[in-house]
Specification:
The structure holds two protein chains of two kinds. Helix content of chain A is 50%, strand content 12%. Chain A is an alpha/beta fold. In chain A, strand 6, helix 10 and strand 7 form a beta-alpha-beta unit.
Chain lengths: 284, 126
């Protein structure tokens, strides 16, 4: 069984991409093989995080970007696979990063997919396309699949929710973010009742956490009271090194001399990755 | 990357962002419009346009019976369309001008597309 989770919160800037990259990298560090899927927008931030952005943009500029993640949502994707074989298609879709985890990067075509899926009346057809792709082609190949979703409630992100069912919400210590996380918990109940899927808020992971400040402590208490069983075991420390590593096209796991906060964040990601495995099962 | 792949008929293997897709749709429309202009010019498609509307039919019937009202409306329409002409006009000219002014004001993107299509035709003709 494969561990599947989507990183989601209906708000931008809470560290969804950083969390996806680092949790994926942490699971790899723990010996699991996995793939990250970037549904978070045409800016292709996960490709930047792993230093693959230029390669991907070059492929787009040279018209060498077919098939790509938007193709997965096409009516005829199954036919394309049948005509060419799954390996030929997946080889082109999946990029290998230097950090061991694989990546299916975002593509500009994704933002026109939403409008096309909007015309489909059948709910499973509309929201279930990514799930079909994940279940049929990725599940057997990987121990874990993490999906980075945009901070928007639209059809493509909901495809990510259907495919993963387990949600990870990165949160910051603030009232707005706290309200967003509560809203997500309510939404998860609606996903379950309206769509009949086994959606679950599996992990609430505090981000950019400044240990020892009153504000952080207060909010941590509030989060813990509200999301008790879903809280990640460790908050992720605020660290300039995370930003520096991202700018350099890598995760903090690749830093040779991490700062104290980066080392703490790395340990926290590892601990949270272990908890994810415990909670969701799947990988050994 | 797709050169050695078999692609199902009708599958979009060049999907861009929604902005790119909109631009492509608009290019296709200009091409269709240029082709239609060619068909009209060759006589494959009628040069006349007709439509059914009781109120407009009554208005133009009454204008036909009142030449000074008609001429005054034609002059205003010519002015709005930027046409310099002092000759006596007819109901057909008035309708033509009003439709063109309407297209330009209400759907300027259609007027632009028509302009581009005419340019395309001129380039094709030479």
């Amino acid at each position: 069984m494969t561990l599947k989770a989507a990183v989601f919160l209906d708000k931008g800037g809470t560290g969804k991409t950083t969390s996806t990259a680092h949790l994926g990298r942490a699971l790899t560090e723990l010996g699991h093989e996995g793939v990250l899927i970037d549904l978070a927008g045409k800016q292709s931030d996960l490709a930047k995080q792993f230093g693959l952005y230029d390669d991907q943009q070059q492929a787009i500029d040279n018209d060498e970007d077919f098939p790509n993640l938007s193709t997965v949502f096409d009516d005829d994707f199954g036919k394309l696979v049948k005509m060419n074989g799954a390996d030929a298609i997946l080889d082109r879709l999946i990029y290998e990063t230097d950090e061991g985890v694989d990546l299916i990067p975002a593509h500009p075509g994704l933002d026109s997919v939403d409008g096309e899926l909007n015309n489909i009346e059948d709910r499973e057809e509309r929201y279930g396309r990514l799930k079909k792709f994940v279940d049929e082609y990725l599940e057997d190949r990987y121990d874990f699949i993490l999906i980075d979703l945009p901070g928007l409630s639209r059809i493509v992100p909901y495809n990510g929710v259907w495919a993963a069912e387990n949600l990870i919400a990165p949160v910051e210590m603030g009232s707005y973010e706290f309200a967003q996380a509560k809203q997500l918990a309510d939404d998860v109940e609606k996903y379950r009742s309206n769509w009949g899927i086994d959606a679950e808020l599996s992990m609430v992971m505090p981000n950019k956490y400044e240990r020892g400040t009153n504000l952080a402590d207060d909010y941590m208490d509030r989060y813990t009271a509200e999301f008790d069983g879903a809280m990640s075991p460790e908050p992720i420390a605020k660290s300039q090194d995370i930003r520096n590593a991202t700018e350099a096209g890598k995760t903090i796991f690749e830093l040779e001399e991490p700062s104290t906060t980066a080392a703490r964040a790395r340990e926290a990601y590892l601990e949270n990755a272990r908890a994810l495995v415990d909670r969701l099962g799947g990988v050994q | 990357m797709s050169d050695d792949l078999q692609i199902p008929e009708g599958m979009n293997d060049d999907r861009g962002s929604s902005l790119d897709e909109e631009a492509k749709a608009s290019e296709r429309f200009v091409d269709d419009l240029a082709a239609a202009l060619g068909a009209v010019k060759r006589g494959d498609v009628a040069k006349t346009v007709s439509f059914r509307d009781e109120r407009t039919a009554a208005l133009f019937r009454a204008l036909g019976e009142n030449p000074s009202e008609l001429q005054s409306a034609i002059e205003e329409a010519r002015h709005a369309a930027g046409v310099e002409d002092n000759s006596e006009g007819d109901r057909s000219e008035l309708l033509r001008l009003l439709v063109r002014i309407g297209i330009g004001e209400v759907t300027p993107e259609l007027a632009d597309a028509e302009k581009q299509a005419r340019m395309e035709r001129i380039e094709d003709d030479y």
